[in-house]
Amino acid sequence: MKRRNTKSTTEVLSIFNNSITALSHEMLQEKLNTKIDRVTIYRILSRFIEDGVIHEIIADDGKKYFALCDNCEGNHHHHNHFHFRCLTCGDVECLKEEVNVNLPQGYKAVTFNGLVSGYCLNCN
Predict the structure, then answer these.
(1) Nearest CA-CA partner of 96 in 70, 123, 119, 78
(2) What is the rounded CA–CA span in Å between residue 45 and residue 116?
(3) In whole angstroms, what is the distance from residue 14 CA to residue 9 CA?
(4) How many Cα neighbours within 13 Å face the side chain of 58?
């Protein structure tokens, strides 16, 4: 399905393209130059996830963060990696090394959500 490219969508994508860390909904809303309502931001994020533009990260505090996908196709986030959340500054980032989980025979993994909490290089 072809998506309409709106000003709001373009601005949200630009923010992700210029961010080196994952962003929460609130962080994204703070960075927007224009006032886009919360519901529209959620719709854009959902669409981006569905289209494989970003992936969702659920932190150890239950908060959701979103990061650009490097190798996602369609609506399938297929690269499995850990994420890191700094306990001081709160930044969440993707760790690039892929994780291989050895499951018992007959099991099939569909999603992976791994998070490591600690102190980043700037806060350590």
Answers:
(1) 70
(2) 23
(3) 9
(4) 4
Q: What is the pLDDT along the chain (124 residues), one digit of tens a residue?
A: 567 788 899 999 999 999 999 999 999 999 997 788 899 999 999 999 888 889 899 998 889 999 987 655 554 555 678 899 999 999 999 888 888 888 999 998 877 778 999 999 999 8
Angle, helices 38-50/7-17, rounded to nearest 10 degrees = 70
As for how many domains the chain has, the answer is 1
Domain assignment present for 1: no
Token readout for 28 is: 């994204």
